[in-house]
Amino acid sequence: MNPTQSKKAQRLENLAHYLAAFVIFMKGIDKVGVDGKTGLGIFFMVLAVLLLLGTIFHHRAVKTLKHFKAFVLITEIIVISIVGVLYMNEGKQYIQYVCFATAILFLVSLSYT
User: Fold this and answer.
1) CA-to-CA distance for 80 and 74, rounded, in angstroms?
2) For residue range 18-42, what is the model confidence (pLDDT) as tens digits?
3) Which pTM value belongs to this model?
4) Residue 1 has pLDDT above 80, yes or no
5) Would you call 92 helix, strand, or coil by DSSP?
6) For the chain, give me the number of helices (H) and strands (E)?
7) What secondary structure letter does DSSP report for 42?
């Protein structure tokens, strides 16, 4: 844990990463069931598992990769934005805005790393 962050802030940050991984994984499951989109679904599910593992083993990864947190945030920004676009293309009414707002908040968080 970063010495300047409180434990509560670290827990909230981890929760955000867990929720993002969950949303990405669920979108992957959704895409696996669509003909011609199985590869995209598997990609999303693998990426979600990697984000989950990165959150769990964050302390070890930071020791080897100096900018690991920034890398994770950039990955989440890109993938959550893609998920938002997919929701928009599927004709959803509001969920894509949640994805885009999440991507913006991750971008703000990235500026503080």
Assistant:
1) 10
2) 999 999 999 999 999 888 899 999 9
3) 0.86
4) no
5) coil
6) 5, 0
7) H
